[in-house]
Amino acid sequence: MKNIGFLSFGHWTPSPHSRTQSARDALLQSIDLAVAAEELGLDGAYFRVHHFARQLASPFPLLAAVGARTSRIEIGTGVIDMRYENPGYFAEDAGAADLISGSRLQLGISRGSPEQVIEGYRYFGYHPAEGESDADMGRRHAEVALGMLEGEGFAEPNPRPMFPNPPGLLRLEPSSAGLRQRIWWGAGSNATAVWAAQHGMHLMSSTLKDDESGEPLHIQQAKQIRAFRQEWARQDHGFAPRVSVSRSIIPLVSDQDRAYFLGQRESRDTFGHIDEKTRAVFGRSYTAEPDVLVEQLATDEAIREADTLLVTVPNQLGVDYNAQLLANILEHVAAPLQWR
């Protein structure tokens, strides 16, 4: 059995070929797709966060709006780049959005990924400390935010406050109980997966990973997941770990599907450098007729290891198309593979 959700990058472009031509379109359609996904019986609505791009960016207004329009589905991110985040604002916004949703947030965070601009976090006012890398800074921001999400008081109260204070040290408000146990780390390597387990964060592994063995993505991911679970078992976090992987899955069911995606049937994993230091493997798209997809996905080791599968959606094709795509995945892929 799998938890199955969608993952949207929220692309928008003012092109006559796009059904998502503005940022407003991307935001409102994201809400509508989450509502449709809940009605279909999916388990999660997740959204990517990219700064300086024509994509979804500031996540918490969107998460709160989705939370207000839905009642059951998990709502998450994949992932928030913590290099750009003020830990205090992050904790406050996350607490508010979680309360609005009825404690359904599943927040994926990370140290970041290749950016649209050079050192974009500096435009947000954040600079690595002396001797610290930007990745170190992202992890530091994450650790501070995790502490704040614990809900314990840490700030010295003003002896002459504007409003009466409860006794003792003060915490950030609003605080949402249990949210700290619903934080995921987007890990690009085996080492950061182990680090996530040590810090009591669930594991989120996408279609892009550091190439650490030259093997296909799904095999490398499966090894990463096993390393995460082994480390988690050594800890005493008091709650069970979860693992998600994301995949592009397109069942070719209709003429419209074939018109859009027939050319992707021969997709394969690709290897290359995402920067001057990092060689990575980028996962293939699974695009084929349903019976072929079932056969291919049955051999994906990482999906077998994970409890949660996030399916990326081509959001610029519109809500109706993507809702039908998700319905086709449930009927023609998830059911035969006994994921549901």
UniProtKB/TrEMBL annotation:
Superkingdom of the source species: Bacteria
GO molecular function: oxidoreductase activity, acting on paired donors, with incorporation or reduction of molecular oxygen
SUPFAM superfamilies: Bacterial luciferase-like (SSF51679)
InterPro entries reported in the protein's UniProt record: Bact_Lucif_Oxidored, Luciferase-like_dom, Luciferase-like_sf
Record's GO cellular component terms: cytosol
All copies of domain Luciferase-like, residue ranges: 9-251
Name of the featured protein: LLM class flavin-dependent oxidoreductase
Annotated source species: Nesterenkonia sphaerica
